[in-house]
Design goal:
alpha+beta, Nuclear Transport Factor 2, Chain: A
């Protein structure tokens, strides 16, 4: 089971770096949540959390527009039966690289919740 979660995380990273929002969002459950300090900063009314594929689609489409060169460089990936912990370096245009950790909770092959932690 942990191997399939590792594969999910790798697919997520590949889709993100390809700026393939459709593939990225397809990895999430229909009512998934995504929590990030970047969401809280840009959209304070959300409390930092988005819910559902439509909101995720809008978030990543906007992100790709704002930061067309954004990419993540994998540094570590750890999984058990229900969670994946992924660490990566965030490379964004015009800012120094920064460490990020993200946790995916996965049920029935779909990400049901993700939480981002910036270093």
């Amino acid at each position: 089971m942990a191997d399939s979660l590792r594969e999910t995380a790798q697919r997520w990273l590949d889709a993100f770096n390809a700026h393939d929002v459709k593939e990225l969002v397809a990895l999430y459950a229909a009512d998934a949540t995504h929590t990030s300090p970047k969401i809280r900063t840009l959209f304070p009314e959300t409390g930092g959390q988005l819910r559902g594929r439509d909101a995720l689609t809008r978030w990543w489409e906007d992100s790709n527009t704002r930061l067309p060169g954004l990419r993540y460089e994998l540094t570590a990936l750890t999984a058990d039966e229900t969670r994946v912990f992924i660490e990566y370096v965030r490379h964004a245009p015009g800012v120094p690289p920064s460490p990020v950790a993200e946790v995916f909770e996965v049920r029935q092959g779909k990400i049901v919740a993700s939480r981002v932690y910036h270093g």
